[in-house]
Amino acid sequence: MAEFTVTGLRVVREVARSGSFSAAADRLGYTQSAVSRQIALMEQAAGCRLFDRHARGVRLTAAGGLVVRHAETVVAELDTAREQLGRLIAGPPATIRVGAFSTAMAALVPRAVAATAARVPVREGLSPHLLTAVARGRLDLAVVTGDRALPDSVAVEPLLDDPLLVAVAADHPLANRISVTPAQLRETQWIAGSSKPDDTLLGAWHEPGHVPDIAFVARDWFAKLGLVAAGLGGTVVPGIAAPLVPATIALIRIDHPAAVRPTRVVRARGLGTAGEALVEALRDSAAALLAEVRNRLR
């Protein structure tokens, strides 16, 4: 007497789902004759017909419905066992310790982490502190800004030139522009993270010979955007933070060679396969974010 088999149960389930032998064969990558043969063997094992054949396909019998319900359970359990065995053989996921400055945490780093299989504890911090942490082995890699001297124990590679944008309210006189020159920004009231124009915290566009008018000081990004949306001033936003900016706020490119923020990945040498995969995911995330910024500015 024939016995129920896992292959046969998979075929019965697929025929029940698709309603015909030919459609099931296409989905499973089998020939139609192979599907017919498996159904015949399953019907022998059941001792009765599992499907009624008709001109437009097949229909489950009462016995077939019973077998399909059990087949769903058996196949699902076996698939789960296979996945668990794979994880057991592979061992625990690799751990990659990552650091990033605050605006890189808006989308750049989270998207990359979500695309990897590694366990990735993330630490937010200022770029100088993150560089030190990588150099001393407390982090495996960090996403940083600025151009600083690096020890020989770490490797560095460019990730993107992050465009600096001006965020203004939708009814601001500059809101309909794609780009502005620094001269067009001189009358702007600014919302910045510090009252000092040369502070490293973003907020006000400044250039030699001109002191920006900083009307409000706010360190929190949501506070800055709230003040902008109320029409109380503009603020400089890095392109990688654009996903945080509501569509009701206009973003404008600053037409100046210095209106970019070089962003780099600093990493320990000999990072390993999981670390290299995360770096590649960061590259993909950066490319996708730049495309989003370009679309937003059109």
Can I get a quick summary?
With 298 residues, the chain is α/β, with parallel strands linked by helices. It contains 8 helices and 12 strands. The protein starts with 5 loop residues before the first helix and ends with a helix.
How does this model look, in words?
It comes from Nocardia veterana. The protein has helices at 6-18, 21-28, 32-46, 62-90, 108-114, 127-135, 221-229, 273-297; strands at residues 51-54, 57-60, 98-100, 122-124, 141-145, 154-169, 179-180, 189-192, 213-217, 235-238, 249-254, 260-268. With 298 residues, the protein is of the alpha/beta class. Strands 3, 4, 5, 6, 7, 10, 11 and 12 form an eight-stranded mixed beta sheet that branches. Strands 1-2 form a two-stranded antiparallel ribbon. α1 packs across α4. It is elongated and about 90 Å long. The protein starts with 5 loop residues before the first helix and ends with a helix. 33% of the residues are buried.
- Morphology: elongated
Q: What is the radius of gyration?
A: 29 Å
Q: Poorly predicted ranges (pLDDT <50, ≥5 residues)? A: none
Give the integer mean of the pLDDT values: 89
Q: What is the fold-level CATH name, i.e. the topology of the largest domain?
A: D-Maltodextrin-Binding Protein, domain 2
Structural class: alpha/beta
What is the assigned CATH homologous superfamily of the largest domain?
Answer: Periplasmic binding protein-like II
* Portion in helices: 25-40%
- Give the topology string: H per helix, E per strand: HHHEEHEHEHEEEEEHEEEH
